[in-house]
Amino acid sequence: MTNMSNLKASAALAGILLPLAFGGVAWAQDAVNLRMTTWSANEAHMAVFNGIAEEFKKTHPNVTVTFEPLPFDNYTTTLTTQIAGGNAPDLAWIFETSALDFVSSGALVPLTERFNAVEGYNLADVTESATALWRRDGELFAYPFSTSPFAMFANTDLITAAGAKTPSELIAAGEWTWDNALASAKAVADAGKDGIIIRDFNYQNWQNLTAFFRGWGADSWSTDGKACGFNTPEMVEAMTVFHNAVFKDGSLPGPGENVDFFTGDAAMTVTQISRASLLPKEDPFNWELVPLPAGPVGTYSVVGQAGVGALASGKNVDTAVEFLAFFTNAENSAKLASFFPPARASLLNTDTLAATNPLLSAEQIENVVINGISTGHVVAGHTNYAQIQQTVRAGLDALWVADADVAAVLDNVCTSVSPLLMR
Amino acid sequence: MSQPLQEPHKPPFWTIARRDAAAGYLFIAPQLTGTILFVLIPLGLVFYYSLHEWNVLANTFTFVGDANYQLLLRDPNLPQVLWASAVFSAGLVVLNMSLALLLAVLLDQKLKGIVVFRTLFFSPVVVSLVAWTIVWSFLLQVNGGINGLLSMIGIEGPNWLRHPSTAMISVVVVQVFKNVGLNMILFLAALQGVPKELYEAARVDGAPAFKQFRRITLPMISPTILLTSIITIVGSLQVFAQIAILTKGGPGVSTTVLVYYLYQQAFQFNFFGYGSTLSILLFLIVAVLTFIQWQMRKRIVFYEN
Lengths: 423, 305
What we know:
The complex is a heterodimer.
Chain A: H1 3-30, E1 32-38, H2 43-59, E2 63-69, H3 75-84, E3 91-95, H4 99-105, H5 112-117, H6 128-131, E4 135-136, E5 139-140, E6 143-155, H7 156-161, H8 167-172, H9 178-190, E7 194-198, H10 210-213, H11 233-249, E8 266-272, E9 287-290, E10 302-310, H12 317-327, H13 330-336, H14 350-356, H15 362-375, E11 377-378, H16 385-396, H17 406-422
Parallel strand pairs in A: 1-2, 1-3, 7-8, 10-11
Antiparallel strand pairs in A: 3-10, 4-5, 6-8, 6-9, 6-10
Helix pairs in contact in A: 14-15, 16-17
Chain B: H1 16-50, E1 52-55, E2 60-63, H2 67-74, H3 78-107, H4 114-126, H5 129-139, H6 145-152, H7 164-192, H8 196-204, H9 209-220, H10 222-237, H11 241-246, H12 258-268, H13 272-300
Helix pairs in contact in B: 1-13, 2-13, 3-7, 3-10, 4-7, 10-13, 12-13
């Protein structure tokens, strides 16, 4: 082969390979892999998310969305560690308790203008009260994809077998109070099963007790977040009732006891309706879903809220916001409503929620979900929440023994946590 | 015509000494690379971070000089944390070393099936630490397996992991059972290296068994005792998974040891600068303890002058 033929062959090869190479580069640049962290690995939830992602792919064939479930217990820690390690997800769920940290720090991409630019998005449909926690200076930083009231699931088989009154019987008699709920739970516990489980509390995540102590008008701290609420008379009274229920009556499982309502081993559980997906399909038991019992302050409702935002440190910010707008538009919010009560006023009605929640009756949706959301207050959050949570947890540990002095322990909690609240 | 000048003789570059040195460097290169990448550079970075305040969410990284070290000196939780670390280390070292030595002496017998017993006691060492700890967390629950066994003999067991007086001892015991096999095997190897003539001579002189153990066995295995004590103490200061799984530092802060505390500060509270400062403190504590033990070898190790 001569030099000339070598040159020709090389040029021909280059002619074939170069366009392919550039084509390849162009393809690689266009391909976008979005990561969204969640704290649910539930198959039913994932099916809904993946369905929405596949719909998005129809109009954005280059975009693949992966949902990355992280352990619930260490969710925020794992998320911030990913951010610190330069491996931030593009989108992330955020707990209501961490909302202030994320919204005020600039970690999230502002959404208002971008959402308003999306045709037919109708941000005005998203209620003002639902987005309050996720706004700063009028700007929306995360979409409240779930505003879920705490409610009570009850195993009516166990309660009836123990000869106690079921929640619906107590409601019908106008006697659905914490005193009577605990009495029914005690009857079940005395019969050998367990009473009421405050789900995910586990004597560590005390914020879940909000669904209990708000019935006494107590709260973790004042509305402005500056004053400790753990040693108020209302909180002392609420915690005294709780302590007696655990250590005297046995109507609530004690610390270190591993019991799950959804396996059919307990009378009732305080949790959110998204947990309905855990109800057993094999060996089912008869159950009902009712609002929280009334406390001394009367009927009340507590709402847990989760936001989803696009992280400023993500690698594909624009596409992430585009997907978030799609994920939370009216059509997809209706799909998400099968597990996560929506923030859109147009969807917060019995017809929509009944269609997406076949497990729940219209009455349950009206009484528990819609009324709960309209009257509920979100679980309290704070800046530097993780440190506050840990400090209160350490202080409350002294309460979880049989001979605890409730008032003294709660005073100590305030002594420890007050300097952090004042920061 | 003159003869060209002969060039002076140059010694060859690739001498035996150079070849041996190159071989030596090649041998240590993998380990050295690992040490530089995963020990020295991270250590330097941790020191660098300890001079900064790093807000992950706000994406700010500010030089603060010795502010984190000042904070270390006035941190009200630190004395309790150091005390918890000391209690854990002392408990672990005493229990682990004495139990390992006892087991090694018992298993250094010529009995039928002795290999099975040795394997049984060593097997927890190869079990995943997290899996081991999770199983123990179920066993130690108030309605768990340990209290179930106790109730069979009429004893109502405590809430092991939730009571301040039992939480720390529970964590220590879980760790002892996990790793006692490793020290046991090291002691066993050392025991089998003690010349049998020494015992024969002692028996001829009429020395009782305990005296033989004190005057022959202990001095002869003293290098292994030094090694295992260093490994155990350093390991005890790095305990994390057991605390995270079993107690989360509670009840109160009774089981919050230094590594768990620095994890909380850095990863849970996002105070990465202060967390780095705490890890520098941990590094200094380990370095000082190791140095002291190494210096003590002259007194306690039989072979050292």
